[in-house]
Recover the amino acids of this structure.
């Protein structure tokens, strides 16, 4: 019996202690007409050997592609240490650290993570994860609406130059609470979200302004001006940031005169494999004054009976298991293990290592954009300064081009045509520190050939 | 010691970053960071030693019995981890085309089918990243269903008072008002109270069965009938699915919507807080509202991912990509390892273990909260008699259990029962382990009688003594600050 | 500086404490003319990312072949648990357990392993590994010569039906001590080593007789008669056995009237990946009376100052670090981590699981032999009963046939032609529990086609 | 508790064996086993919990400072493990054809080249599975060399009295007689005694440099000259190579043969006793005798494995296949991660750490065995003064160090120095760790003075107290026996 340790003797002894003659009797409070005869439509058990063979065969079906896509999920080097340690049973198979004394490992890791994120964002506090970057942004919107005591507005400005999937998720999760998202256009020339466009949204007050740095197109926004505009209009400034980029970019806590109020984003670039989309982890940081509105778990440093330092979940009164319907969020299970990986990852890289990664990604993407733009008809969509992604317009339908690239083993970029028809045909490309000059040259060569055949 | 405190300026783990840094990118000065963030500067060995050491400070399934009620802490098969990390899966970009991901898609499609079979529902979405997100998806579907029928007045969700806190929190997030339904003295929902709460504002009810009181809600069919008659829908909180897996199905009980915690019932690891996965299943009339994405098998046997254009009525997306795929793969492997018979055996042995443990503790003189009821896969002990007799609280006993090498059961939940422990042994623990736990409980009660300071000051043998949670909340210390940055942000 | 944690401040402080001004000064006792200027002919450092890419590329060069070879290294299912636990830092990065109190993990594992091997072989004691099966056999020969007090003979009988590489290793390691290996032929008909052949070696006394069960051809020997013959001729009986086979076969301790004196073999089938030939582990067991002649580490159960059970290296007076030139062997570093894997592997399988594996291997090889023997010209070399390998004679040159199979992605067997020209053209094939009926059918089909083209 | 003691008849981890057992194979009755071997019957969770728990009882590099002299316990980079376990390498059958294994072969060939570069030798064989097997290969080559010249009378190997025990043991295994050479009071070999030992029976000498006394043998050139003049060969024991890596090479010192412990100098893990790898390098005149296999790069850039027909004078094979390939791959990855400069830096920082630790301990009042000598990568402390003053032995202090969270240094080796600790910090430890160790030593000496029972009864905080080795040897208990099998074999 897979994973069930009971011997026939055990079962007999246990039933005798309970005082019933068969296990089935233990289900006698279930109305008899509801009892199942047996499960159907489920295959028979396989041995580990057979499952291994099955999964290896299926994994082999999924062809590895030379990856030039970012668009919210980035292929970075993950040190071997990261998952060899994060995968240790004591981290991997522990529960949420409710019993603090028996969970000092996980709790200290989470406190260290919070500290690292506070340092990266230059904000005061961080939580211990949300599901992913998109749901974190949605939670940030909900939090901002709760936390903003200057206005009763439930309107939030959201840039069009923000990940389309994120915008969808934010809508799913905030609309039921009557929050209205007002889309702010980007400047066709620069790809930036102009401060003027905020004003043109035509509202006097709003609960929050989302500022995305870099934005979905990889373009750097004028974060100081956007933040100041938000504060001038009683709105909180929500920063949506890439943690790798923060090694080089001005941190949200220093944006504008007063700094962003909340920063959130996707922690995937910090040691999490692409894994077809998850598990990743959303992070969220904020100023001290808003900490009681933060959703999710928060770890605090405290002392034990002997005065020794220890760690515990804190501010639990915000959470669903205490506050129930009035909680800051319904989140319970989060992405703890991914933060363990992120913490180890950040410890290994340090600020200087993170800077090298960021700068290398920028350089590789710049090289990629240069090489591709040298192909006739390919050119950058925008003039604004970029981080490690670039939107390029194409002289042929992007879907067909991407399909042809896949046939060559290349994942050539994110097709902008569907979400941004005004840019079509166009791709969003990315080259992280993993892409070599040879691979970039290969991409350019193949794209060139494909486009030539389209002419 | 924190990793930050081990740091020394200039120390590195240089193999982990590109060896040659390129020129700094041409970022305009005013967008650039002016000073480096203060992150640890440590060697690779220091990182390994630090985090290996921290890991040893955790209790976990791999090291201890973990009878945490309502959490289903069972063995997480190691093969699930290995196989979910195969390069074809783990290196796949979420935006890679689906025709290059048929292997992954086939696993997810089959997982959907398996979840249909065990829940008795007609359609499944794997999108929710955790149980609470599954709950939210569930109530959003209730909302979408009523709205689609133009039925905009249904603003109330009924929730029994014994429910998990996530239930009312999810209902609130979905914009509903919560109406609490009391529990009767026998542990079942107070049906009269329920009936009197029903009306034109009733959108639905959120129930878990077996309930958090560790008993099976016997009047479930009557409840379903009443709710449906009132025009409401029934949502099943899958947190306790392990107690009925293969024995009875939410779909057959009359539920319209169900979520499943794969990190409980399907043994994916809890990881010190996650990631989990909370797929939702629905009866056919709710299928159009399922969250995206969904995997479909086309007539040609190929798999494809459904999007907004296929499912315009969907409540939408809950995360940027397809949810916690790696967790779903682990659950799939688990389901294949157990197969039909194995999945059908889970609840039997989970319930056997719980009943045995309850019977032994009861025989040893402990007080069950619902002694006249059959125990499901978990049960509640109330330590009120011990608290009264010895002045020792349930929390003291829980902490003392840690010294005996067992993780503590869930304490003070459900809130209805004073000084309670909610105990869930799961099916993967042996009789020996349960016997050890009983002996520990007996020994601790003896200590409480003879030397109450021992449990009151527990734990004694852990890396720290009892931690001061009040101090933590009053003197908020949520992030380490370097001396130099204290001035800036302190 | 890779893996060196010293900061410039550290270095300066350390030099000041030492009282020198530069690290180079610390080498001032080395004659100046010997000092190197720098290393040459070694490439520059790579980052982990670059090494990862390099090694992945090289690993991809090494094409996976559908494996029908055993011949001393067997492809078995290795439970995922095995290396996830054996790879934990506390096992992986510990030294030999000289400080017993700080090594109870490793020591208990080794004691458990010794116990399991004693149970499998039905002998009294086991050591905690030698390098591999071949060197273990060589050590067993040396041990037998030392331990045999009935004769001064330094002659040892070794079957020709024993792994050719093992015979070479035994020769390398025993010849310097004047030990003479006398090869005993096998019966051309059965593949067994006949008792009569021992007598025909023409010696009255010998130090030891090696008995190989199953033998290199997979054929089962008449171990009782061989053991009794050895004892009748004052020789010790050395069993060379496959640990998986011991699940089904009579254990060495029960061979003949008195049982074999020493049993040894290759532990690789117990949880060790093929890994191109190593690391594996040799095991050795013996009767109580010979335990002081055992080479290698031995763990004993003992008590601590409080009377609690604990484990420690014992009988160290046999070993080189105490006995130096008079030690039972020069072995020091052994294959400890592989035994950790083997112990976990055996604990997971248990006797019943091991039996299932053994029986499945036998059945698969039987099926393979049947399917291949159905091809015209292919037939079993021997009539003796077999375990999980089979020698098959071919109607075409074996080297060419194997090469053609490799081109089809099949590793078709061990070519017997080189070491056993008397059998040529012939292959030694094996199908473990990992080979499916489909794979066996595929092999048969391809072999059939290849042989057809040779006709 | 032993895994055998957790066993219960009929318990299984069934996922791990074929689910359907075929018919028992047709094995003749008299060759069949009559009763099942008594192996553990446990569940998968029990296995995971048992061995995870056992692992936590170990000290290791990943958890503690491990200054074990002569063992070079440095950080084992985790990438080496991951990359050696890539499917292409780890699934490869040793008898797969070499043209399907060019990736592996290229790594091994390049490792040979790297080892040539760091040792200054002309040719390398990676075959030996450990240091002692490398030593044996070395002396077998000495034997083969003399025999090939018809020089059959050279039956003696000279070995300094401070040598590792493996040296005389290996010489004996190769059929040589051992002649011990005394060490002078300054720690160098007594050159006069050496000279007087030379003669027509001299086959060679086995030396390690720096020696086990933690000092560099200054007269190495004179020794080499004398040995060669007498017709002998010089063998270099690579155990201490970490102390000179990149600074001076055995080949340049005049050695004819060298072995390298990859599990020391090249940071492959020690695994609680192995596996290691002990490649041997030789000067050109000894190349024909190298053990097999060897990897060669052909003119076309392809790699091939040399066999007996290529190298008829080879001393032969030492293991069935190519040695500990997985260990060799780890060493190769390590060498590539460090590269030329990194390998050249190893000894500098190993020696810096040892000199710093020695200087601090000396300043704290501890006694160095060779205070007038420069410390190499390791050094000897003699605790004779403390033993005399406080009645506390070096072993007591070693055991007490365990309580302070440091692995003990090597004790009572080399045998020449009474009450000694041989301390090797390695280059991967930080100054902080060394300072911690010094503080611990000072604290323990204070304890020895004020409360000698504390160190004498140490350790106090480990899973067991001081173990009785005499009891272990007198009451041999080498294998657990089930009650039922006691009768049969007990």
């Amino acid at each position: 019996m897979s994973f069930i340790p009971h011997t026939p003797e055990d079962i007999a002894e246990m039933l005798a202690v309970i005082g019933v003659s068969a296990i089935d009797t233990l289900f006698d409070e279930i109305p008899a007409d509801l009892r199942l005869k047996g499960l159907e439509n489920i295959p028979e058990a396989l041995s580990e050997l057979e499952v291994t063979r099955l999964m290896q065969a299926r994994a082999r079906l999924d062809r590895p592609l030379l990856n030039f896509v970012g668009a919210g999920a980035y292929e970075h080097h993950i040190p071997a240490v990261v998952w060899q340690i994060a995968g240790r049973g004591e981290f991997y198979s522990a529960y949420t650290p409710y019993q603090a004394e028996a969970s000092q490992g996980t709790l200290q890791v989470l406190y260290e993570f919070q500290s690292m994120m506070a340092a990266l964002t230059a904000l005061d506090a961080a939580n211990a994860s949300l599901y992913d970057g998109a749901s974190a942004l949605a939670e940030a919107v909900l939090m901002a609406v709760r936390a903003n005591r200057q206005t009763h507005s439930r309107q939030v400005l959201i840039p069009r130059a923000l990940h389309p999937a994120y915008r969808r998720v934010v809508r799913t999760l905030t609309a039921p609470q009557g929050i209205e998202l007002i889309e702010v256009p980007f400047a066709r020339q620069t790809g930036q979200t102009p401060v003027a466009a905020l004003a043109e949204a035509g509202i006097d007050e709003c609960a929050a302004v989302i500022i995305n740095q870099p934005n979905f197109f990889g373009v750097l926004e004028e974060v100081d001006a956007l933040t100041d505009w938000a504060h001038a209009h009683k709105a909180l400034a929500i920063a949506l940031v890439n943690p790798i980029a923060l090694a080089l970019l001005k941190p949200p806590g220093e944006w504008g005169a007063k700094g962003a109020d909340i920063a959130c984003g996707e922690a995937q670039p910090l040691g999490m494999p692409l894994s077809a989309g998850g598990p990743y982890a959303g992070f969220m940081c904020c100023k001290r004054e808003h900490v009681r509105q933060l959703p999710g778990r928060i770890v605090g440093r405290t002392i034990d009976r002997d005065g020794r330092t220890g760690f515990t979940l804190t501010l639990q009164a915000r959470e669903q298991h205490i506050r129930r319907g009035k909680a800051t969020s319904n989140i319970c299970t989060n992405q703890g293990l991914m933060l363990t990986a992120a913490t180890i990852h950040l410890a290994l890289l340090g600020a200087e290592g993170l800077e090298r990664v960021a700068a290398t990604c920028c350089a590789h993407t710049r090289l990629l954009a240069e090489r591709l733009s040298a192909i006739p008809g390919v050119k950058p969509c925008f003039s604004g300064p970029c981080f490690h992604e670039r939107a390029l317009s194409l002289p042929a339908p992007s879907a067909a081009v991407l399909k042809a690239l896949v046939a060559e083993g290349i994942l050539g970029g994110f097709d902008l045509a569907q979400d941004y028809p005004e840019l079509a045909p166009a791709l969003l490309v990315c080259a992280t520190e993993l892409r070599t000059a040879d691979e970039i040259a290969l991409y350019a060569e193949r794209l060139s050939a494909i486009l030539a055949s389209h002419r | 010691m924190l990793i930050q405190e081990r740091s020394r300026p200039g120390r590195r783990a240089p193999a982990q970053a590109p060896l040659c840094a390129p020129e700094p990118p041409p970022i305009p000065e005013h967008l650039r960071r002016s000073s480096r963030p203060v992150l640890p500067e440590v060697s690779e060995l220091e990182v390994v030693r630090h985090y290996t050491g921290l890991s040893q400070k955790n209790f976990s399934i791999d090291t201890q019995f973990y009878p945490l009620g309502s959490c289903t802490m069972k063995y997480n098969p190691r093969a699930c981890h290995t196989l979910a990390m195969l390069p074809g899966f783990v290196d796949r970009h979420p935006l890679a085309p689906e025709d290059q991901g048929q292997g992954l898609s086939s696993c997810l499609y089959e997982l959907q089918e398996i979840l249909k079979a065990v829940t008795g529902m007609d359609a499944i979405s794997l999108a929710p990243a955790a149980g609470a997100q599954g709950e939210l998806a569930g109530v959003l579907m209730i909302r979408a269903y009523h709205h689609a029928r133009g039925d905009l007045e249904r603003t109330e969700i009924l929730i029994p008072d014994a429910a998990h806190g996530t239930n009312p929190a999810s209902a609130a997030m979905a914009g509903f008002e919560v109406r609490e339904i009391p529990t009767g003295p026998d542990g079942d929902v107070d049906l009269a109270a329920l009936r009197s709460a029903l009306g034109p504002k009733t959108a639905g009810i959120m129930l878990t069965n077996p309930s958090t009181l560790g008993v099976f809600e016997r009047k479930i069919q009557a409840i379903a009938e009443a709710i449906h008659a009132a025009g409401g829908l029934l949502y099943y909180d899958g947190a306790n699915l392990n107690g009925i897996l293969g024995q009875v199905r939410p779909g057959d009980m009359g539920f319209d919507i169900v979520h499943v915690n794969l990190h409980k019932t399907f043994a994916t690891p809890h990881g010190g807080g996650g990631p989990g996965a909370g797929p939702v299943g629905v009866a056919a009339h709710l299928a159009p509202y399922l969250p995206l994405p969904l995997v479909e098998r086309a007539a040609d046997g190929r798999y494809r991912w459904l999007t907004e254009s296929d499912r315009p009525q969907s409540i939408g997306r809950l995360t940027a990509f397809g949810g916690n795929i790696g967790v779903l793969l682990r659950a799939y492997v688990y389901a294949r390892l157990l197969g039909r018979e194995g999945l059908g055996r889970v609840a039997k042995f989970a319930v056997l273990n719980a009943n045995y443990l309850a019977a032994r503790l009861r025989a040893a003189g402990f007080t069950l909260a619902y002694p006249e009821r059959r125990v499901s896969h978990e049960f509640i002990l109330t330590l009120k008699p011990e608290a009264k007799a010895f002045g020792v609280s349930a929390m003291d006993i829980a902490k003392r259990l840690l010294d005996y090498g067992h993780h503590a059961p869930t304490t003070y939940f459900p809130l209805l029962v004073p000084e309670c422990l909610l105990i869930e042994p799961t099916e993967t623990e042996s009789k020996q382990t349960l016997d050890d736990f009983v002996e520990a409980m007996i020994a601790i009660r003896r200590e409480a009688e003879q030397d109450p300071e021992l449990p009151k000051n527990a734990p004694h043998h852990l890396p720290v003594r009892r931690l001061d949670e009040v101090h933590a909340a009053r003197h908020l210390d949520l992030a380490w600050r370097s001396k130099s940055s204290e001035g800036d942000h302190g």
